[in-house]
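Task: sequence design from structure.
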């Protein structure tokens, strides 16, 4: 709450979002990369030739590292408590916030869930991103051949 007040409404004392709807309203008029759609953080999509998903971090990281020829050296081993696991090889992370257990506390109605999905739709509609990335990768490949 304090970060939102400090960043979005330092002159108002009572702008702390008390509900998810309050948060959505405050953050609609106050840009911050912490809650902005991720797609808006990238200004130059033609530089991107791979987009992964945090929910699929292990497989996407392996795919990316294999794509650039770095899986064996940097991804296949050397991670985990004993250094014997692949990157993201375990399901338990030290920085886990437990946010999945808070879902019901914030998403108290279908309306809230709909508003959140609507705001972040482009982040989850990876097909448009994937198409841009595919086009960029194809363009780079053609330029490399020429």
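Answer:
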């Amino acid at each position: 709450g304090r970060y939102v007040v400090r960043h979005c409404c330092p002159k108002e004392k009572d702008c702390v979002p008390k509900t998810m709807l309050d948060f959505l309203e405050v953050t609609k008029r106050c840009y911050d990369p912490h809650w902005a759609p991720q797609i808006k953080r990238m200004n130059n999509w033609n530089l991107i030739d791979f987009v992964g998903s945090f929910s699929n971090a292990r497989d996407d990281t392996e795919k990316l590292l294999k794509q650039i020829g770095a899986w064996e050296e940097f991804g296949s081993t050397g991670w985990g408590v004993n250094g014997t696991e692949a990157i993201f090889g375990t399901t338990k992370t030290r920085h886990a916030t437990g946010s999945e257990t808070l879902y019901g506390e914030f998403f108290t109605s279908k309306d809230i869930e709909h508003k959140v999905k609507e705001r972040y739709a482009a982040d989850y509609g990876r097909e448009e991103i994937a198409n841009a990335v595919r086009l960029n990768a194809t363009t780079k490949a053609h330029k490399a051949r020429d």
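The chain is about 50% helix and 0% strand.
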